[in-house]
Write a structure and sequence with these properties.
Distance between the termini: 43 Å
Number of strands: 31
Strand order of the largest sheet: 12-11-10-13-15-14
Largest sheet: 6 strands, mixed
Structural class: alpha+beta
């Protein structure tokens, strides 16, 4: 990626040999159409029929020769923007000398293009042998148009172009689809679309959001894979996709490598040959090769995407409504009708859309129509699950992903036969309930079997509760075990290898993820009253852990000789269990207390272990981490409002919960310099809390991964799964809990693999992002033992 400098001779820019990333700092040409749409036309003098760019823009700032001349402020749906200009009289605009700009940049661009083509052929030749087919992804935006032109000069004609029509495309995008087919007429073009319309999916799933992007899978990547399966007449395929993703587009994409396997889908290898290009290089290539430009760019849209996109900026809807009137109306209607929020008037609704309020949801808690988790009860080795969402058909299909359903010859009992234990099934009973739905009861033979299976059963039952055959799991399956029959999902128990890759979709089902409202989590949150407004303390004179080290198994119950007050001991009972300092039932001290005995109550790695345990076991802390972002300051009122929005029935418990949170962060090593939070005071009172990124010991990473393995019953994970930050997700990863950059995380995991190969394995090379731990051999407590040895 090259930098650039402004060129007053051409009115454009010149590439320089300096390199670097300029995320969210991209430039774009500004045409007549944008000046007319925004009202900027009143401030400039120009030829109204001019087709060439007249100036440039960076976000909302307009530039001539690199100098700011105007800016649009408060560009938000339902409102008129404020226009700010840096001159008094009308400014004369001259068109950019495109031909000269292209010529002056030709030397560097020839190197850029040659390198991209070389890398493209290299990527294709290296891995096509392990794929059934390769394809070029087309979206109608400038990135995909440039990618297509590059691919057409390098890749064989047997490589088709696939346009995943989300049914939410801009009218000008469909026009681009027609144009490129004519331009590259010798290549095969395929349009893929979902079985159901976008609007219908919005109704069935609830509107997507920034953290619940079911739309990309259901409406985009899945249809592409499904159409290729049909083309090749194969139930399972491995494909190579050339996609126009660039690192400049976002912070998350800036960490991508140009080759990755199984990131979007287990069946797909993504190849991104223009990952290092900036928008300035894209526009030069576009102008130099006279490529078609989506007219949406001429109107001022900084990106070409769906009509209504949860990843869009505040001004995106403003532009869409201005340029394509009435297109977003049906989507806005669904957003408003599906929301549990009470709108007093039309202004409230407009503000909700314009302020991106609809894009922020992290679960189904803010929806009118939700899906609840099954009621779960365990009595010894008997575990039962009951839900009104269970159907017999879906249950007996999805249970095949766990094992074979058999009827035992002697007892006539239905049992789940596990892959590694043929002839030795787990008895279970499925019975429909009077009020609809069903109850399923499993009779485990040992505690180990129960612990190993419960997380998998829960994941399977989430699919049973919410599956509507969106084909996402079918696309994920690379053995061809999942298919459709008359619109219903079918699973071939013989082809299914029980790899559970279909469970790797967020919380195992996109619809469940989108519509889930946790009754049990609400109940857990009500338990914050057990804290008695106290947090877990260990600072100055508040030495709870030091007291636990001293008293050990005599810390509970409270008596008059105890160094802490009675209410504090009650609070400590809850915090110590959730921090894994004491056992849940016996309340006997754990090996973690040995670590504090050796290194003292302020032991840094000990508190890192405590933090990751708390954000996974204490619902208050799990909510706090999922509701806040790193380096963003939140006042106590902000946090109270967020907590009330997530758990509207908490009432006065909100004050007690936040009091306990503030008490912990101000009276323990979890708050302060070089801690996971920074506290801003107003006088003696906490004014605001900011979560901070923290460098942690590599053993903290390992401890975290073994905690996650314990909670999920899984041993293998991918980095993409580690980014989920939702109070309803099954775990909180160390990346989220500590704000660890992805490259740092990978480095630490690789270091752990070198030092402790018996504890962790990584496969980060060649675009893979997988890693595994070995919970059958080791436990989280074993990691604490490693820390004790250090």
């Amino acid at each position: 990626m090259y930098s650039y400098e402004w060129d007053s001779v051409t009115g454009g820019y010149l590439l320089t040999t300096h390199t670097g990333r300029y995320v969210a700092n991209e430039i774009r040409p500004v045409f007549v159409e944008e000046l007319n749409i925004t009202g900027l036309s009143s401030y400039f003098d120009y030829e109204p029929s001019e087709k060439r760019p007249l100036l440039w823009a960076r976000k909302n700032t307009y530039l001539v020769d690199g100098k700011k001349v105007a800016q649009l402020n408060n560009t938000q749906y339902g409102k008129e923007p404020d226009i700010e200009v840096s001159f008094s009289n009308k400014l004369k605009l001259h068109p950019v000398d495109i031909e000269l700009m292209v010529e002056k940049n030709s030397e560097i661009m020839s190197l850029v293009v040659a390198d991209a083509k070389r890398r493209m052929k290299e990527l294709f030749d290296k891995d096509i042998g392990r794929c059934d087919i390769a394809y070029i992804a087309f979206s109608g935006g400038k990135d995909s148009v440039v990618l297509l032109d590059l691919c057409s000069s390098v890749l064989p004609l047997s490589v088709p172009v696939i346009f995943s029509d989300t049914d939410m495309e801009l009218p000008d995008t469909y026009q681009m689809w027609e144009e490129v087919q004519k331009r590259y007429s010798e290549r095969e073009f395929i349009k893929a679309d979902a079985d159901t319309t976008a609007l219908e999916n919005w109704r069935r799933f609830g509107p997507p959001s920034r953290t619940i992007r079911w739309c990309c899978s259901v409406n985009k990547s899945t249809p592409a894979l499904m159409v290729l399966k049909q083309k090749l007449k194969k139930p399972a395929i491995k494909v190579m996709a050339f996609v126009g993703v660039r690192g400049d587009e976002s912070i998350s994409r800036s960490f991508y490598e140009d080759s990755s396997d199984g990131v979007k889908n287990a069946s797909q290898l993504n190849r991104m040959p223009i990952l290092e290009w900036g928008s300035h290089e894209l526009w030069l290539y576009t102008f130099a090769n006279n490529l078609p430009i989506n007219k949406a760019y001429r109107y001022g849209l900084p990106r070409v995407g769906c009509i209504m996109c949860p990843e869009s900026s505040d001004k995106y809807e403003w532009y869409i409504e201005k340029v394509y009137p009435n297109l977003i109306g049906p989507y806005i209607d669904i957003i408003i009708k599906s929301s549990a929020k009470e709108f007093r008037n039309k202004g409230d609704k407009t503000d909700f859309i314009g302020s991106s309020g609809w894009q922020a949801r992290k679960s189904g808690v803010v929806l009118r129509k939700t899906i609840s988790s099954p009621t779960e009860r365990s009595d010894g080795l008997i575990s039962s699950f009951q839900s009104t969402y269970f159907t017999k058909t879906l249950f007996f299909e999805w249970i095949k992903t766990l094992g074979n359903v058999v009827v035992e010859r002697d007892s006539g009992q239905t049992a789940l036969e596990l892959p590694k234990k043929p002839g030795d099934g787990i008895p279970f009973v499925y019975s429909e309930t009077v009020n609809g739905g069903a109850r399923v009861t499993f009779h485990f033979r040992s505690r180990d079997e129960q612990l190993a299976m419960l997380s998998l059963i829960r994941a399977m039952l989430r699919k049973v509760s919410a599956c509507i055959n969106c084909h996402a799991c079918e696309a994920e399956c690379n053995t061809g075990a999942i298919s459709s029959e008359d619109g219903h999902i079918k699973i071939d128990g013989v082809k299914c290898v029980k790899c559970h890759k279909c469970y790797h979709i967020d919380v195992s089902c996109w619809r469940y993820k989108s519509m889930y409202k946790s009754d049990s989590e609400s109940g857990k949150m009500s338990g914050i009253n057990r804290y008695n407004n106290f947090g877990l303390r260990e600072r100055d004179r508040y030495l709870w852990i030091s007291a636990l080290v001293e008293k050990r198994d005599e810390f509970f119950p409270w008596n008059s000789e105890h160094p802490l007050g009675k209410k504090m001991v009650e609070s400590a009972s809850a915090w110590f269990q959730q921090a894994r300092l004491v056992e849940p039932k016996s309340k006997k001290s754990t090996v973690l207390v040995d670590l504090f005995e050796k290194h003292g109550g302020s032991c840094a790695i000990g508190w890192e272990f405590i933090w990751i345990a708390l954000v996974n076991n204490a619902i208050l802390l799990k909510w706090f981490v999922s509701a806040t972002n790193i380096d963003i300051s939140y006042t106590t009122d902000d946090l109270a409002n967020k907590l009330a929005e997530t758990y509207p029935n908490l009432g006065k418990s909100i004050d007690g919960g936040l009091a306990a949170l503030k008490d912990m962060l101000t009276k323990s090593p979890l708050g302060g310099d070089n801690a996971v939070t920074y506290i801003d005071y107003k006088g003696k009172n906490v004014n605001a809390i900011t979560r901070k990124s923290k460098n942690v010991d590599s053993l903290t990473i390992l401890y975290s991964l073994y905690l996650i393995a314990e909670m999920t019953g899984r041993s293998g994970f991918s980095i993409r799964e580690m980014f989920d930050a939702d109070v309803n997700s099954s775990y909180v990863s160390p990346l989220v809990a500590f704000g660890i950059p992805i490259e740092t995380f990978k480095r630490q995991c690789n270091g752990l693999y070198t030092k402790y190969p018996d504890y962790i394995s990584t496969t980060f090379a060649h675009g893979n992002d997988g890693f595994s731990v070995f919970p059958d051999k080791h436990s989280a407590d074993d990691i604490i033992s490693l820390a004790l040895e250090g």
